[in-house]
């Protein structure tokens, strides 16, 4: 899917461009993520997942936080921000995971997705999207590079990326 490798040309600073690219790459690589939002005030990423009314959504807190703490312990780091919010709507539960950019890696993004996917196998709502292995690797490398570039360089705008009808839409504010 070489067509997905777009060159993002913006008049904004490089960090905003990296932020836009980062959020787009996360959505391209991980179809399970419904939207991702860069929150400037917290220098954090908010990932949303949509789940059909699961039985034990509250047990996610007991699984996800210790798993990420253990992951960071192995990496020799600690999380500055970890927040899990669960909002029930009509027939859907929206799970929002907030993580600080400073200690986040591409491997952690993959871990969060896999843990949520494993816990809510058939209840997770997402569009299946076929991404060849070489494109998956390319997007993972982009995520790693762009996360590294914005670890210490704050993006001066809030950025939101979401899916709509098979497209990735990015908004800056």
* Level-2 CATH architecture: 2-Layer Sandwich
CATH class: Alpha Beta
- How large is the share of residues in beta strands? 25-35%
What is the terminal separation in angstroms?
30 Å
Spatial extent as radius of gyration? 16 Å
Task: Give the total of domains.
Answer: 1
Largest sheet: 7 strands, antiparallel
| H and E string | HEEHEEHEHEE
Low-confidence stretches: 1-13
Total beta-strand segments: 7
CATH topology: Yope Regulator, Chain: A
Structure annotation, total helices: 4
Helix content: 25-40%
Mean pLDDT: 85
Overall 3D form? globular
Which class of secondary structure composition applies to the elements?
alpha+beta
Can you tell me about this structure?
It is a single chain. The longest helix has 19 residues, at 133-151. The chain has 173 residues and is an alpha+beta fold. It has one domain (12-172): Yope Regulator, Chain: A. α1 runs antiparallel to α4 (133-151) and α2 (59-75) packs antiparallel against α3. Mean pLDDT is 85; it is low at 1-13. It has helices spanning 14-29, 59-75, 106-119, 133-151, and strands at residues 35-39, 44-52, 82-88, 92-100, 124-125, 159-164, 167-172. 26% of the residues are buried.
Task: Provide keyphrases for this structure.
7 strands; 173 residues; alpha+beta; Yope Regulator, Chain: A
Give me the secondary-structure topology.
Elements: H1 14-29, E1 35-39, E2 44-52, H2 59-75, E3 82-88, E4 92-100, H3 106-119, E5 124-125, H4 133-151, E6 159-164, E7 167-172
Antiparallel strand pairs: 1-2, 1-6, 2-4, 2-5, 3-4, 6-7
Helix pairs in contact: 1-4, 2-3
């Amino acid at each position: 899917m070489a067509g997905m490798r777009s060159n993002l040309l913006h008049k904004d600073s490089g960090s905003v461009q990296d932020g836009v690219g980062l959020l787009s790459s996360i959505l391209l690589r991980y179809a399970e993520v419904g939207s991702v939002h860069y929150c400037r005030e917290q220098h954090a990423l908010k990932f949303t997942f949509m789940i059909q009314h699961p039985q034990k959504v509250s047990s996610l807190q007991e699984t996800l936080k210790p798993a990420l703490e253990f992951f960071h312990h192995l990496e020799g780091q600690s999380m500055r921000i970890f927040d899990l919010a669960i909002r029930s709507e009509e027939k859907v539960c929206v799970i929002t995971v907030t993580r600080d950019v400073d200690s986040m890696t591409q491997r952690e993004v993959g871990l969060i997705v896999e843990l949520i996917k494993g816990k809510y196998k058939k209840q997770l709502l997402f569009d299946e999207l076929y991404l060849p292995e070489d494109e998956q690797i390319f997007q993972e490398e982009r995520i790693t590079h762009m996360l590294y570039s914005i670890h210490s360089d704050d993006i001066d705008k809030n950025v939101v990326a979401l899916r709509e009808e098979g497209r990735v839409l990015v908004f800056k504010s």
